[in-house]
Amino acid sequence: MDEKKVMLSGIQPSGDLHLGNYLGAIKNWAARAEEFECYYFMADMHTITVRQNPADLRRRTLEQLAQYIACGLDPEKNTLFIQSHVPAHAELGWVLNCYTMFGELSRMTQFKDKSAKHKDNINGGLFTYPALMAADILLYQPDFVPVGEDQKQHCELTRDVAQRFNHIYGDVFKIPEPYIPKAGARVMGLTTPDTKMSKSIPEGCVFLMEKPEDIQRKFKRAITDSDTERCVRFDPANKPGVANLMNIYSAVTGKTMEEIEAEFDGQGYGKFKPAVGDAVIECLRPIREEATRILQDKAYLESVYKAGAEKASYVANKTLRKVYKKIGFVAR
Ligand code: TYM
User: Fold this and answer.
1) Which has more pLDDT, 30 or 61?
2) Of 143, 115, 100, whose CA–CA distance to 9 is shortest?
3) Ligand 1 pocket mutation pick from 150, 157, 194 by most atoms within 8 angstroms of CB
């Protein structure tokens, strides 16, 4: 029998999960477990590149796990774990730091954005973040890394570092492909259609656990366009707000842009915006209800992340031992 292909991805528990995380990443992870061997983690080590409140970080990490499960990631079929529970990430992260170039790291958009946002804390971890991310990925020898568009650059750097390493030491790492969805790869803020949806602009960000009335209010206030045409037409260059809402509607309902244009033909934005809100509410409702239920059961969550760390460590340590041997470290 052929071996299953491997998928891996992670999200930082630096804020509550939002619609961008769901449509850009998690939605693409769920329901793949039959076809792929899947690893998904809470990237807690990455979050401390920006100062975190310790109690909030702990709470959000567990909430994120409950939300992963509620989004359809069955822990019996997917390996779900907390990054800091698998020390191999930090260990390979250090090694890969030494194979990642200053110039490469300087070109990373996320570093430029975050160092502009957190001028008082431009620490070494923020700069070398992509080497840790490369380690997260390469430890599991994945074929695919399902992420949103904004992580493509980090995935490409991961491939470059892996190729560089393989070139020196032989075939140690599989070269992974980023796996980016067609609809939802870049969900924009509802109030800022020119920047990606993110927790830093909460009025334009829809959180997975948010109450339906709050979600609906955000969609009703979504920026559309100042043009006089006021029709639902997919034109990202001239109508970015409408295009974003259409993108969200398409990702949630599976409808094509032509079908959406036909559905709202002749009916201005007044009908369209609440319809998108309703579709999102119905998509998120079962997730919110299930996550709330799972969160009550702390013993269950603990059993999931412990089993996940054990399985992940086994796989990760195999790669780490190979790397240590290749670079000339004495075996333990
Ligand atoms: P993070 O935590 O910022 O985001 C998690 C995932 O959500 C996607 N995403 C979006 N997709 C569409 N529209 C948006 N507005 C939007 N905002 C976020 C991201 O593309 C990502 O897939 N460095 C990573 C976390 C990470 C990781 C990894 C990912 C650490 N190690 C290894 C994959 C593999 C990050 O900061 O994502």
Assistant:
1) 61
2) 143
3) 150
